[in-house]
Amino acid sequence: MTYMVDVEGLSREFSVWARTGRFRRSAKVVEAVADVSFTVARGEAVGYVGPNGSGKSTTIKMLTGILAPSSGRVSVCGLEPSQHRKQLARRIGIVFGQRSQLWWDLPLRESLEILRAIYRIPQARFRARLDECVELLDLDSFLERPVRQLSLGQRMRGEVTAALLHDPDLLVLDEPTIGLDLESKAKLRGFLAELVARRATTLLLTTHDLQDIELLCPRLIVIDHGRILADGALDTLRDEVSPERILRVDLKQPGALLPTFHGVTTVQADEHRTRQRLSFDPRRTTAAELIAQVAQVAPVIDVSVTEPAIEDVIRGLYARSGAVPAARHISRSSETTAGEEE
Amino acid sequence: MAERIAVWLVILRSRIRSQTQYRTSFSLNLLSAGLSQGTELVAIVCLFAQVDALGGFDRSEVLTIYALSSTAFGICEFFGGSLNMLPTYIRTGTFDILMMRPLSVLGQLLTSEVQLHRAGRAVVGVLMLGYVVGATGVPMTGQNILLLLITPLAGALVIGAVWLVSSSMSFWLIKGEEVTVSVTYGTNLLTSYPMTVFSAPVRVVFSCIVPAAFVAYYPALALVDRPDPLGAPEYFAWSGPVVAGVSLAVAAGVWRWGIHQYKGVGS
């Protein structure tokens, strides 16, 4: 089986100059990505998650041939990215949330026309693809407007269209929803979900916004300090890290605190004791069993079960690894910003 | 191949169209490009109101050098002006966008900002050259006409190579703008005056290491029919194309090395 993305033992170091005295500087080697291995199969949608400076963007740059790895092996669409940059560019689409590949001084439509020429897309295929995106992403109202006049949400929809025109096998999105309002986020997510479902486009998505992952990516790779902390389906990770569920019951009358039934770890109640929360381990009991037990003790009006939020799962992963998520590692872009501040 | 050229034409056309959308700013830019060239010319003329010779050359001879250099500089600026943008592109991440397209990165850089108003400088240069050559009575022999044609072109390539090297420095430096800009306008100054006005160490650097003297000085000597007071051989006047070829080869090497550095291959 050939993978869309096949990464093995991937590492990337940067030398960072640090001031050690008034005039003295010394080079420090920082490992932005350390021994990262994973594969992505065709048609998979994978979320690549980590805090600022965890090595996400550095990984993306190595996958797209912008950076060469210090060591390890990368193969994307069967190509070695940094050696076959141009060939690979025809097979992948990239969206950077923080920079634009459109021409700011031209109408969106003209930007897309230039890309048609660059990727040598046949006119008919271009039309079909564009029409589809215009319809699904509602580009109609601003297709003729210069890119510099577009709102961020409109521009991102344009960027996604631009990345998809040449029918890439793999779509890489680096923080695509950053800064978008709720409606724009929802629209973009809806479109991407459809893309994965209908076209079987492979999706690799880095994000801060865990909702992106929850809605789009069945699989999650969590990275911190340049190392992979976890790789798996969201549900599996949830069970692994914080298996507890919470059963909320609303009682008809105020009463005593409910007993800790088998499998229940804690019981919490509000001041009237009408609403009570039971944390339980689903491996030792089930929600149905618990509800039945509660109903025997007191009349119940309403119940609900909540799973831990994805944020809690990720936090649990960091806690387990003893890592505190914070910006530490330095990627190329933050390196230059640091230089600017001097 | 035809398809490949078509791609660049589409990009060029779009760059040109984007400028004509702002007509006022375009004509103002054109005017300022012509004016800045004009003020430099006035400076030389004023200078010669006070002195009879500059480094042993009279007014019309200095103007010949200046006109040749301006024309070369103008042509280079027109085609290679956006080399200046490289430091900015690297700092803002636009360079990554160029890297992710299936096209030559250098080609994209060169076509990223084609500014028509820059043609103003080249046009003024050509007019000036025509005037000076006519006024000083350079004989219109076949040889001289050929020299007048190839010199600005070869000169533009030499200057372009110097610019390419200087902008490539931003692959190593965090703030490359200063280097790039000083080299860009520095070359204009250095190529515009007779070599004799500079001190010996400067001359060595700007004829041997950076071949600025080949852009205008040596060809101008042949046009005004004077031997080099510093003793350079006569064939230096015709060496422009060879010097351009060598400079470009070196510059291309530095560029490629810079890209490797950027990607971090073997560093």
TrEMBL record, chain A:
This is ABC-2 type transport system ATP-binding protein. Its main location: membrane. PROSITE patterns: ABC_TRANSPORTER_2. The lineage of its organism: Bacteria, Bacillati, Actinomycetota, Actinomycetes, Kitasatosporales. One of its GO terms (biological process) is response to antibiotic. It is a peripheral membrane protein. Residues 18-250 form the ABC transporter domain. It comes from Streptomyces atratus. InterPro entries: AAA+_ATPase, ABC_transporter-like_ATP-bd, ABC_transporter_ATP-binding, P-loop_NTPase. It is found in: Cell membrane. It holds the Pfam family ABC_tran. Keywords: Antibiotic resistance, ATP-binding, Nucleotide-binding, Transport. Signal peptide: none annotated. One of its GO terms (cellular component) is plasma membrane. GO terms for molecular function: ATP binding; ATP hydrolysis activity. It comes from the Bacteria.
UniProtKB/TrEMBL annotation, chain B:
The chain crosses the membrane at residues 28-51, 63-83, 122-139, 145-165, 204-223, 235-255. InterPro entries: ABC-2_transporter-like. It comes from the Bacteria. Keywords: Membrane, Transmembrane, Transmembrane helix. The keyword Membrane applies. This is ABC-2 type transport system permease protein. It comes from Streptomyces atratus.
